[in-house]
Amino acid sequence: MSTNASTTTTKPPPRKILVVGCGSIGAVYYEALLDASPTAAAAAADNDGRPFEVHLLVRPGRLSKLAATDRTLTLSRIPAPYRVVLRPPATTRQLHVPADRLHSTADLLAESLCTVPADTEAILITTSSLGLRDDDGAWIAALSRRCPDALFVSFTPGPHDIDFIRSKLATPASLAHGLITVVAWTPPLPHESFDPLAGAVGAAAAGKQPNHTAYFAALPQVFQYIPDASEAAAASAGELRRRSAFDAVVAAFRRGGLGAAVKGPPSASAGEKKKKKRTEKDDAGFDVEGEMFGFAFAIPLLVALETSGWKMRRLALNRGKLLTSALAATREIFETSPTLQRRRPSGWQLAFVILPLARVLLPLALLAAPAALRHLVDLDAMLESHFSKVGGQTRLELDQHVEAVEAAAAAAGGAGGKTAKTAAVRALAARCPRWGGPGIGAETAAERAEDFAWIAGGLLSALAVAVAVVVAAVGAIRG
User: Fold this and answer.
1) Rounded Cα gap, residues 405 and 418, in angstroms
2) If 0-12 CB within 10 Å is exposed, 13-18 middle and 19+ buried, where does residue 233 land?
3) What is the 8-class DSSP label of residue 283?
4) Which residue has the higher pLDDT, 355 or 90?
């Protein structure tokens, strides 16, 4: 007599991920992680067959707004600009956040009321740099105690944010950093002709919908793993868990449709020589110099753009000498930043390569970008909406730079003349309304007409030059 043994299949436990913040970016990442949860055998191979259980951590005010709409998020995904020909077919969907997966920072700080799962494996921070410092980072410390094995993945842009997070952890641990490449906003923007809900260009706007986000993802998100020296050296269980969580998050973003690229050492299967070369550059810690390189261009341009009244055309045409002031601040940051060491350009590179190229290419980009994306989004309005909301972050980053440079100057040679090392940055900020400055005044109809006449003249001149070059080339070939 034969007996058939029964086989018991154990269902793998879900991989719990916490998204901190539910603004535009937090909502987009929440959607991507839900879409990435493996349900088929083909997807299971990327994540050990474990589904995702995605949670949200928000401020009490945001919690109330979500509760008012029965915890419903509305997301409209628009094809990336390079895939759009004429009319972008937006895909709109609604997501319902389960009550047991929505948590408040107030309950987290109370600790006894906290409902965040203690076995959370990855914590994705999508707040601003200023939001990161709420309660002096007490919520980070509370999360670190609540979820001691979790990997913190920060998407905040500040070059000093990783150090701030590290200082708040209950115990030293490896971290990760993510670069946001999604463009997201709350529709409809003022004067916006595209209504994602109607899915057509030129449709009458349906009005703002609660918790609604429109977005497109043109490039993959960029991730970097930042090992803690003690964990990496010991190859501890915590290091292995966090590495596994990092790989799972990267794979999830790829499956969820946002894409992901990894900065730093490749997988163990890659060639040893290539791995060693990249490890020396990236795996020693967070690439703060690379972040500061981007900061040197981006922050002065944002300050100048706000001073212009959020009009990229005014900045491109150097109204009020704003572009000149922004590039002067950029040069000063490169020359004085204590953070930029290996990547600080030399004086001749700045004077004869970087800044001249920026002076030519930036106006072209500032004029072309709004026109190219006009059928998707009013870029001026979107930038104003987003960076006004997180404007404290811009001020924080620039003020931190000024403080660091002046402190270094004071330590090196006394207080005398230290402000001279930040004169261009201070002069730029002094004109910006965020620092109490006057701006450059409202745009007038006469100025607008003059700008468009100048642009039209420039285009006609460029066309004439192009025609002349073609005619000369044809003549040379025939001759």
Assistant:
1) 8
2) exposed
3) I
4) 355
Tens of pLDDT, residues 248-271: 999 999 999 999 999 875 344 334
Distance CA 185, CA 71 (A): 19
Residue 167: CB atoms within 10 Å: 10
On whether the CB atoms of residues 120 and 150 are closer than 8 A, the answer is: yes
449's CB contacts (< 8 A; 6+ apart) are none
Provide the 3-class DSSP secondary structure of residue 118: coil
Q: pLDDT digit string (tens) for 25-84?
A: 999 999 999 998 765 444 444 446 678 899 999 999 999 999 998 999 999 888 776 655
Spatial neighbors of 479 by CB under 8 A, at least 6 apart, are none
Q: Name the pLDDT band for 224 (thresholds 50, 70, 90).
A: very high
CA quadruple 177, 179, 182, 187: dihedral positive or negative? positive
- Cα–Cα separations (whole angstroms), residue 89 to 84, 317, 454: 9, 34, 35
Give the number of other CB atoms < 10 A from CB of residue 222. Answer: 15
- Note the pLDDT of residue 253: 94
Calpha distance 263→224 (Å, rounded): 5
DSSP character string of 153-209? EE----TTHHHHHHHH-SS---EEEEE--EEEE-SSPTT--EETTTTEETPPP--PP
Residue 238 has a pLDDT of 79
**Segment 162-185 mean pLDDT:** 92
Helix (H, G, I), strand (E, B) or coil at 79: coil
**Is 335 buried (19+), middle (13-18) or exposed (0-12) by CB count in 10 A?**
middle
CB 76 within 8 A of CB 92: yes
